[in-house]
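Quick question, first post here. What does this chain look like in 3D?
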Amino acid sequence: MMKIIDTYIRKVFLGRKKWGVNIRVDKDGNIHGYAVLLVKEKQKVNISKHIEISSVDVFKDPKFKGVPIYLSIESNLILEREVEEYNENTMADKFHIFDSSNFYIQVATFEAFSHIQLIRKGDLDSVINVLRSFELQLVSVVLGPVNFTSCIDYISDESRKTEYELSQYKIVVDEHETTNISRVEKGLGNSNIIIGDESIENELIIPYGNAFAGFIYENIPDYINLSLLKIGNVDYAYSRFLKYLLPSSLSMLLMVLLGNFLLLQSFSQKQADLQIQYAQYQQLYSKLNKLEEQLKDHTKIFGSNSNIGQQRFTSYADRLGSIVKGRIVMSSLIINPLSIVHSNLTKVTSIGENRIEVSGICESPLLLNAWLQDVLKESFVVSITEQQFITDDYTNVNKFSLVITTRN
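> Answer (accepted):
Ran it through. C-alpha cells below.
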C-alpha cells in the first residue's frame, strides 16, 4: 500500500515540466546565462522554450513559478582541481585550505578521476538568497557543467564527439565515460548536439543537461556531493504533496472524524437506551423467576391439581382429629408450614414439605402416648419427631408439641 502511495506522489507531484538553468556570475555579482524548459510527453522529453538570462529580474517572470528548477553556477570564484581520489586531506594538499567550514565543496566522482570544485559560502549564498526571494522551486544546485554527463548516453552518433566545449569548460569523453573536465579561457562554442530528434544549441546544452538530470535521477546524482542544497526529486515531490494535498486531506480527515464522533454519539445514546431496557427486562426476568419458584412450591405442596392436594391435606386433618377420642386437645395443626429466614437483607420464604406441626394440651403423658400410638398406625404417617412435653407450674396444665412426617 505504501509503495502505491509513494508511486502516486512521485508521478503526480514531480510534474512533467522542469527548468534547467545555467548562470555565470562575475566578480561584481552580475549574471548571464540561459534557461531551458523541458517538457515530458509520452516518455519523450523536448524543449518547450528557452530564455537568455541577463539579470536576476528574469526570474520574476510567472513562467518560473511552480516549476522545479535545476540550477548550475559558473564563476571565476570557483576553485577546482582533478584528483585521483577525494579524501580528508585533499583540501589541504590540493587547495592549501586547512579549514573548509567556510566553503561549499562539490565532488563529482567519475570512473577515472574526481573533479573537485569549491566556492566560499558567502559568494554563493548571496546568489541563492536572491533567487529564493522570488519563491522559486529550487530542487538542486550544482557547480559547473557536471550534469552534462547525464546526456552523454543519449547523444546521437552523428553529433557524438570526444571533446565538448560548453560555456567555460571543455569535457573529454571516451566511450561514453567522462575522462576530463577542465576550464578554458573562452569557450569556442563548437556545433550543436542532437539528442533524440532535437538539435540543441551549444549555449543551451548545460541547462538542458541540468533539467534532463532531473528527469532521469530520483535524487541528486550519486557522483555529486554538494553540501549546499540537496533536495532531490523525491523530497521535492513530497514537499509539494505536503503543501497542496495535505491540507485538503486533513480537512477530509477532520470531516471523517466529525462524522465518526456523531455516529459515536448516536451509538452511545442507543447503547444507553438498550441498557435501560436491559435493566427493565432483568427486573421482569427476576420477577418471572420468583413466580416460577412460587409455582414450584405450590406444585410441591398441592401437586399439579391443587384440588386434589387440598383434599389430601383435609383428609390428614380429619384422620388426626378422629382418633383424638377426648385424650388430648389440639390447639393448632399446621400442614406444610411456611418459614421465613432473613439473609443479607433478603427475606427468604420456604415451605416445610411433608410436615405437620401439632401442639395442644393433655391430662397426662399416658393419654398423649396412647394417641401417638394410634397416629403411627395411620398409612400417611412416617414418623413423629421433635416431641416436647411441658407442665406449667402455675396452671398445672400439660402442654405438648410435635412434628409428624408424612409420605409424599
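The CA atoms of residues 363 and 396 lie 10 Å apart.
The two ends are 77 Å apart (CA to CA).
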